[in-house]
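Subject: sequence -> structure tokens, single chain

Hey, anyone have a minute? Need the predicted structure for the following. Not urgent.
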Amino acid sequence: MLRLVLLVILSLSAACGPATHRVVMSAENNSGQSGFALLTPLSGGRTRVELDILPGNDPRKVAAHVHDWRCGEIGGIKAGLTVLEPNAAVNGHFTSTSEIALALDAMLEGTFAINVHDARDFSLYVSCGEIK
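Reply:
Had a minute. Here:
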């Protein structure tokens, strides 16, 4: 009987799929570009990163990365993300979906942040979210 209960629990866990982790993206440098990121673990130590932030004043595509450390104290780039671009399907929000070679568990155990750059000045950030 115990084996049957364990088998049912394992089957239900697998059927539910991987747990998605939500990261709050806060506006930086008075950009007004807040939003969220959804991180989903994939096989092979990879993670899917789906970004959605409010549109800014500049409609051009913007770069985003996973960095070491925290917002306000950004460290080195650990993974590049697909550039964000305006998406008419979600009221012009800037969106992107990427698959990166970083395990979600490792990011949650470490100190990492997602950072979105300004289209006009790469050294400025418009949005940042700490992975915790």
